[in-house]
Amino acid sequence: MARAKVKASGKGRKYRFSFGPWNIHEGADPFGPPVRQPIAFAKKLKKYRELGFEGIQFHDDDAVPDIDSKSPQQVRKEAARLGKLLANEGLVPEFVAPRLWESPKTIDGGFTSNNPAERKYAFQRSLQAVDIAAELGSKNIVLWLAREGTYIRESKNARLANGYILDAINAMLEHNPEIRVMIEPKPNEPMDHAYVPTIGHAISLAYLSVDPNRVGGLIETAHAKLAGLDPSDEMAFALFHKKLWSVHLNDQNGLKFDEDKSFGAANLREAFNQVRVLEEGGFGLNGEFVGLDVKVMRTQKANNATAHLSNSKRFFELMVHKVRTFNRKAEAECIKNRDYEALERLVVEHLLGV
């Protein structure tokens, strides 16, 4: 199949890309078991450079398996060993995220559990994630507040719950003066309703923290869409506050579960506008990664179970080209004349290559 030749960097910056090892997976879903053989972590690392990726995203137990069974000294030692391996592979650890949602101790939330002992566990594990990040050579912690919410609203005090989350953020900031916390908002799933559902909520917490300059956001395309919001507007809001420090790009067919489809696969115009906002907002100029959080289709055969990653990266690069070649003079004329029908045609025809 012929492929258009498009430079990733065009006339502007060259973007850097990242993904997490969980994005190469075995195809299990809530209704069926795995359909592909697991790929060893070391082999996944080799795939990064092959696919043109530089950054690697981590959960704490991606970096240190069976983390709860190990002492703090063992955890730091294993993380340091992995940090050396990453350096040898030419990979950059983008962030570490404490995976609080899978522990039996956090069935009803970690930071926002009604049980003080469970809240203490969540705090301690998050501080350990900070230590892991430092050993890997990353200054970024991501908080996806997966079970920080409720199945029924009467089960928790929402006012106190937001305070518990802020307490956790402050504890991480005080534990390591170099670390930055990126909140990844999502309105639902796995909980019925989640606390901190949008980037606006996340940024308001950032400003209340002990060091607002070290708290920002990570916006995922699908999460914004599940909130009924436009991902590009969420990104623009965070960029306005200088708090968009990473993105998880993917796509979504409507208000369902979190599908994590390849970026641009469902809605090209939404993809165009996300790239437009990132490009115009200077995203990447300070070293930020274009992160992907995409799932390979269950139907995909094992011999090409990374196509969703290479496809998403290519679709992003093609959209960068579309953004940079858009007729800005014609756009300005349409806006000046308030002729938005003409502007719509201009955009659609550009995307269609007319």
What can you see in these coordinates?
- 43% of the residues lie in helices and 13% in strands.
- By secondary structure, it is an alpha/beta fold.
- The protein has one domain (16-320): TIM Barrel (Alpha-Beta Barrel).
- The strands form two sheets. It has an eight-stranded parallel beta sheet. A two-stranded antiparallel ribbon has the order 5-7.
- Helix 1 links the parallel strand 1 and strand 2.
- Helix 4 (116-136) runs parallel beside helix 5 and helix 8 (231-240) runs parallel beside helix 9 (268-280).
- The chain is globular and about 60 Å long.
- It starts with 15 loop residues before the first strand and ends with a helix.
- The model is unreliable at 6-10 (pLDDT under 50).
Number of domains: 1
Shape: globular
Quick check: average pLDDT? 95
Strand percentage: 5-15%
What's the arrangement of secondary structure elements?
Layout: E1 16-19, H1 41-51, E2 55-59, H2 60-63, H3 72-89, E3 92-97, H4 116-136, E4 140-144, E5 149-150, H5 158-175, E6 180-184, E7 193-194, H6 199-208, E8 215-220, H7 221-226, H8 231-240, E9 244-249, H9 268-280, E10 289-292, H10 307-324, H11 328-336, H12 340-352
Parallel strand pairs: 1-2, 1-10, 2-3, 4-6, 6-8, 8-9, 9-10
Antiparallel strand pairs: 5-7
